[in-house]
Amino acid sequence: MTTTHSNRTPIDYEREMNRSQFEAVSSGAGPVLVIAGAGSGKTRTIVYRVAWLVDHGVDPTSILLLTFTRKASQEMLGRAIRLLDDRVALVSGGTFHSVGASILRKYSRFIDLDASFTILDQSDSHDALDIARKEIRPPIEDMKAFPKPRTISEIIGRSLGTGNSIQEVIGRRCPHFESFGADIERIREFYEDFKKSHHSVDYDDLLTRSIELIETNDGVRRDICNRWSHILVDEYQDTNRLQARMVRLLADGHDNVMAVGDDSQSIYSFRGADFNNIMRFSELFSGARIIKLEENFRSVQPILDVANGIIQGAESGFHKRLFSEKKNGAKPMLARPFSEKEQSLLILRIVNELRQHGIPLNDVAVLFRAGFHSFDLEAELTKVRCPYVKYGGFKFVESAHIKDAIAHLRVISNKNDKISWARILKLIPHVGDKTSQTLANVFSKVGELEDLATVLPKGKKYSDSVENLINSINEISRMDGNLPEKIDSLNHFLTPYLQAAYDNYPKRLRELDQLAQMSAPYKSLVEFLNDVAIEPPEREIDEDWEGNTEKLVLSTIHSAKGLEWGTVILIWATEGKIPSPMSLGDPDDLEEERRLIYVAVTRAKDRLVIVVPQTTYDRRLGVIPTTTSRFIDEIPVDQFETH
DNA sequence: TCTTCTGAATTTTTT
DNA sequence: ATTCAGAAGA
What we know:
alpha/beta, seven-stranded parallel sheet, six-stranded parallel sheet, 26 helices, DNA-binding
């Protein structure tokens, strides 16, 4: 029987894109590196490439699309389905971490890992490091001067990501901690043991342990390399050493890899990303074809002129120069309000003006370097009741009540999870750091959930509450309802805590309901927790009290990557904000700040405003004058409209 | 004396 | 939201 898949006229690949895009989309076997300038139709190229492969007889189940966010892969595959047909739905897509997690779940028996392992997110891993910091023997002598868990985690992570030893990383990044190198090394060992004994893995383990598995186990390697014959990697400039290694391993034997990225937009080195990966792609994959996409379909030329000017000063990178057919258009505006307050008021004026010209609020974005740079603006927006959404900074899943609910679920799924035990016990009155640690220790060693009550100390102030907690957990784990029902019943149990702890508990309760709904598609608790840990689900666009869905966008530059707006307003373009003071110590970090500004300005389609407040407030010095960011100062003034 | 509770200060970017 | 220091409690 013959079936016809196509639900539309055949795609005329050659006519629907420009020459270099077509060259990438239609390239044959072997490694290809696509250097895709900002706004050059990178996503479109990947979408068409997936369609082209399927259209030309490649089995969709043997295609893997690797991205940095699940949303990105879903969007791209969704577009490819609409472009071609349902066969594309069989393509595998996901993040490096999710692929790592599924490899570990599938082959856990080969590496002494419980298949129901818990994935520690960043704050879990900080908690574990904090425990290590306090429990290693002999104890650390001067705890006050010792780095915080967050710093320890950065050091260890960087050591893994770069391949340098812990001592080397400290010497380079924070020499003032040099004398603690040996202690941090001991903490790392303790932390590794801790993870092993509690059946948990952290983000880095998802990569390192799956790499190790593929490298050491021939059967597994054959299995995996046969599974995917064509691999596409998005945002290759943001891969770290481990991720590049993983791509190399996954493509073992066929080398059918298409890596897409832009070295000028590499802005995640703090997370271990190394844009040298993209420069070295041809060494890893010999004979790689390099294709550059330089035609920009997004911005008017005057905006690109500024963008080109900014990136021209960069020390290294693939040479490229963006150009656009949209030759006419306004020059970017450079505004110099007196103070932060004036800056906020200026933005209100601009937004109002645009609105009067019929431009919807959500086509305007205000971008900044760090989450707190928008505090004053947020206050002003609230004052005049201008609706806005903010991206970057705190995330849905990072809010305390969601983490609490998830910690309960984790305990149900893996009762060895000491960190989650400690977290939920601390919610109970009269249980603090010490008691929660002790109880968590005891609880995580008990054989069955049902037996918990037997090890609970009686007659303490907290005994009844803890018993209540144990009963509820037992009840929920025994329930045979589906996942949302279980979470509902947990939420019911949590309600009194929320009431006691938060004034806005109705809102938080609604968010817990959302969590229950999000769990509906999952077959098991383990799978749900797995996805939640790797990629926190995004908060749904909530309508505010006036039913507004059209909102001004406030975003960190990092969170704005890959997006575009008609109007972009970059605020705080001053020294000390961009570049951030943290970057001044290392020339590589400073270069990354340049790329950040580049990413910010290339988000704009028609209008770009760069705001440089003339003064700033310092807690110690009071009101002090600012200096224009060096990256803006480099640009000839005649490229701007000054205000 | 050991723990918990409370309030004040601080925060680069985040899969 | 998290962390820290000091007060109050057991």
